[in-house]
């Protein structure tokens, strides 16, 4: 299955608990951390929920 690389660009400070939990679910918890995940509809939905704090690299 295809992989997708995600980089955290925004801070979870002053964000809702759901957004913080979504970042942790994506494997991100610190600024500029990069995570590589399978490209599934579930992953895409999580990225969409925190799209203002992450950057899709590939």
TrEMBL record:
Question: One Gene Ontology cellular component annotation?
Answer: large ribosomal subunit
Q: Key word Ribosomal protein present in the record? A: yes
Residues forming the Large ribosomal subunit protein uL30-like ferredoxin-like fold domain are 5-54
In terms of InterPro entries, this protein maps to: Ribo_uL30_ferredoxin-like_sf, Ribosomal_uL30_bac-type, Ribosomal_uL30_ferredoxin-like
Q: Tell me which UniProt keywords the record has, alphabetically.
A: Ribonucleoprotein, Ribosomal protein
- Could you confirm whether the keyword Transmembrane helix appears in this record? no
* MF terms (GO), sorted A to Z: structural constituent of ribosome
Q: Which domain of life is it from?
A: Bacteria
Which one GO biological process term can you cite for this protein? translation
Record family assignment: Belongs to the universal ribosomal protein uL30 family.
Q: How does it assemble?
A: Part of the 50S ribosomal subunit.
This chain's protein is named: Large ribosomal subunit protein uL30
Per the UniProt record, the source organism is: Sphingomonas paeninsulae
């Amino acid at each position: 299955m295809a992989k997708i690389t995600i980089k955290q660009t925004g801070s979870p400070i002053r964000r809702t608990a759901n957004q913080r939990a979504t970042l942790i679910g994506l494997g991100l918890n610190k600024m500029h951390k990069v995570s590589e995940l399978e490209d599934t509809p579930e992953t895409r939905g999580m990225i969409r929920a925190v799209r203002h704090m992450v950057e899709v690299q590939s």
